[in-house]
């Protein structure tokens, strides 16, 4: 995290994800008079959007997925809630809850609900071993460490190309290995000093510190490596979070192993069902409200001692 924090908003409950679980959590938390922040993407719930028909959502038969998605969004809008088009790259413990990081912007919240959906991200070999030791997921955060040095950007989305341009203002040399589809990259012009190398990354190279990237047909050397994807692995998003090979580990109250952090929907594992996601979103919101109310009561008791 950077030394200078640009703190723009404070919430009672921050919800990461704007699919059915996240939106269900948002409206339930708002009904309970909590200040809610919803962090999503430019297009909420593409999985639901692409469903040709939904027949098993109670009370709303014979609807297309997008019709139901539009109803969810309209409900949220009617509640006066807005979705921030912000990718959260880190959630860290703070004095009064948690700090959420989105590039160089930080948000304060008393509790968190993770509703990030199914995570299909598969780290390349040795990626997690070198995270924080030359490998980073945030160019804005760690870019200044590589002033005058050589860096590699593994770009899996449009944001990766934008971050490469940012790094070109700092680093001496920038190499981009892009996995971005041509349509998604349209309109982005890379800085002249950036060198693009085709190939598929398969591993991070290094000893005590990362020294480069192995592609299928060659090896690239650099002082730092930035990996920019659409989403961050849950246990990297929230350090210390208990995650199994099925998803984020929760109890019946949708609570994780970290007090104040809850999870709901597909990110908690099977079954990947709409009703389950919406139901867990409600449970997570009500339990987050209960958690906040208990904190408030404890503070009052301490104040009267």
Give a verbal description of the structure:
The protein is α/β, with parallel strands linked by helices. It folds into 2 domains: 6-120 and 232-304, FAD/NAD(P)-binding domain (3-Layer(bba) Sandwich), CATH 3.50.50; 128-228, FAD/NAD(P)-binding domain (3-Layer(bba) Sandwich). It is 28% helix and 26% strand. The protein is built from 8 helices and 15 strands. The chain has helices at residues 20-31, 46-49, 65-78, 139-142, 158-168, 182-185, 234-237, 274-304; strands spanning 6-16, 36-40, 83-85, 90-94, 97-102, 105-114, 135-136, 150-155, 173-178, 194-196, 201-206, 210-215, 219-221, 224-228, 261-263. Strands 1, 2, 3, 4, 5, 6 and 15 form a 7-stranded mixed beta sheet that branches. Strand 12 (210-215) and strand 13 (219-221) form a beta hairpin. The longest helix has 31 residues, at 274-304. The protein is globular. Keywords: Flavoprotein, Oxidoreductase. Residues 11-281 form the FAD/NAD(P)-binding domain. GO terms for molecular function: oxidoreductase activity. This is Thioredoxin reductase (NADPH). It holds the Pfam family Pyr_redox_2.
Spans of at least 5 consecutive residues with low confidence: none
Question: What is the CATH superfamily classification of the largest domain?
Answer: FAD/NAD(P)-binding domain
Termini Cα gap: 37 Å
Q: Architecture of the largest domain, according to CATH? A: 3-Layer(bba) Sandwich
Q: Quote the beta fraction.
A: 25-35%
Cα-atom Rg, whole angstroms? 21 Å
User: At the first level of CATH, what is the class of the largest domain?
Assistant: Alpha Beta
Number of structural units classed as domains: 2
Main sheet properties: 7 strands, mixed
Quote the CATH topology of the largest domain.
Answer: FAD/NAD(P)-binding domain
Mean pLDDT rating: 92
The helix fraction, in percent, is 25-40%
- Count the E strands: 15
Element-level helix/strand string:
EHEHHEEEEEHEHEHEEEEEHEH
What coarse outline follows from CA principal-axis ratios?
globular
Class based on secondary structure composition and strand pairing: alpha/beta
How many separate helices?
8
InterPro entries: FAD/NAD-bd_sf, FAD/NAD-binding_dom, Ferredoxin-NADP_redctase_2
Protein name: Thioredoxin reductase (NADPH)
GO molecular function: oxidoreductase activity
Pfam families: Pyr_redox_2 (PF07992)
